[in-house]
Amino acid sequence: MEIGQHTSQQYDQELEEVRNMALQMGGMVEDRLSKALRALIENDSQLAEQVAYSDQQVNNLEIQIDEACIQIIARRQPAAGDLRLLISLIKSVTDLERIGDEAEKIARHSLSSNNLGSGSLHASLRHLGHCVRDMLRDSLDAMARMDSQKAVDVAKSDEIIDSEFDNLSRELLTRMMEDPRNIKGSLNVMWCARSLERIGDHSRNICEYVVYLVEGKDVRHSGSINTIGEGDHDHDAANTNANPSAPPSAS
Amino acid sequence: MSNATATTLDPNDLVNHDAETAAPKKGSVAEQQVDITEVIKELENLTQPVGQPFVEDQKFKTRHVDVFYDKTQAIFDANLDIGRNEVISMIGPSGCGKSTYLRCLNRMNDTIPICRVTGDLLLDDENIYDKNQDPVLLRARVGMVFQKPNPFPKSIYDNVAYGPRLHGLASNRSELDEIVEESLTKAGLFKEVKDRLQTPGTGLSGGQQQRLCIARAIAVSPEVILMDEPTSALDPIATATIEELIDELRESFTICIVTHSMQQAARISQRTAYFHMGYLVEVNETSTVFTNPEHQLTENYITGRFG
Fold first, then answer.
1. Per-residue model confidence (pLDDT) at position B44
2. Is A239 on the interface with B (CB under 8 A)?
3. Which helix (H) or strand (E) holds B143?
4. pTM for the whole structure
5. Domains of chain B as residue ranges with CATH
């Protein structure tokens, strides 16, 4: 998978530009998530404010990237790898924007809950937060390198996040049953955890688009991403396919 | 018959792939180098095209087709099936052999003295290069439409009636009228010309002329229609009309089209064959070729990556 080498270098540039914008957007979103998490865990209301009301940049970038993709599609009629690149970018950008929104929600919830409660809850949430942050970083990494093997590995780690989320939910439920006065605070934590879990899902989507971009396979909703990577990943086209049936024998 | 007007062709222009490879084309910046010797080596090792070159219900079956222009080999061991009632498009850079291959299918290459075709080309299991095969009859079964509209300098009516008359397909005037009307209707031209059938065919617009040529080709009820860049001389609207027509004709004919417009191949064909330097590199469903081609060369070509 490569971007350059078009006869039209202008085309190379356009593709490179839109890809860079998407990666830049990924970086921004990652940064927002980190800040939101820090605000939540360290109870830093100033930082939370900063994240809660600065979504504009990410939104603008989303619009710019979509527009750039539309322009390229209209003017260049991309095919094959180029087409897959643009489609996967358009889709990734939507997920990135949602991740930005979730980060914003986390920041807002951290403003309204100034106490995270017991130590174990705090630790669980922090752990979940770090898992999600790492997953997002890794999926952006896979996107930047167009590394489908890495994307597959990262996508699989979504399961860990889901089970962490389940554990935390159970913990919260127990806490609420113990003492109704805990409900308000617990719900706040619940919302944050829920946002984090959603970010995990969006990161997984991004990984799936990377697989689509590189391999041309649609692995959404099928569970087939779990089976990828077990086979051979050689992409030397000359070796990939030789129709075993129908030998070219003359009759 | 339409193919009476064989366009002249300069073999050097078409096939000399040594010349093709030796001369780097425009825009070849240092970073754009494709290692030609590597590519040739890879192509030589390609015993058959990647993808699905063979189908169940084949109209044409071609195996081990080699074509030479004098000493230059233009096509190397092409193995390909063309399915019944399918539109198959042949794409590839200039001089890759796609037109040459197309011309083999109705023995148009016979008109070039230095051209030699070997291998098996079977139309409904019948060897079209058999000694007993009459090329004229073959070309009635396998019609052809060329890049430039080339109506005869006759009336619209006579253009279409020419083939049926030659082959004695109509026994009287009213039958001939019927064939002419039906062919023109199938070609989507009848409404536009029904009041001036006796005016010269050359007086029509380019798009109409091309449809007249298609009407002329289908007047003899061929089984296969070969089209060599049928819309490259037409404007977008005439092109759209012809493309629409091709889709309708698919019900009754098998259509084989050579095109330089990849978008056109993507729009109208069910299968796509990619030629490169005389080798048939990849044959696949069109939907696969344009979203996820198997061979790197195909990918490079359709995404515009050749220097």
1. 81
2. no
3. strand B142-145
4. 0.78
5. 46-149+221-302 (3.40.50.300)
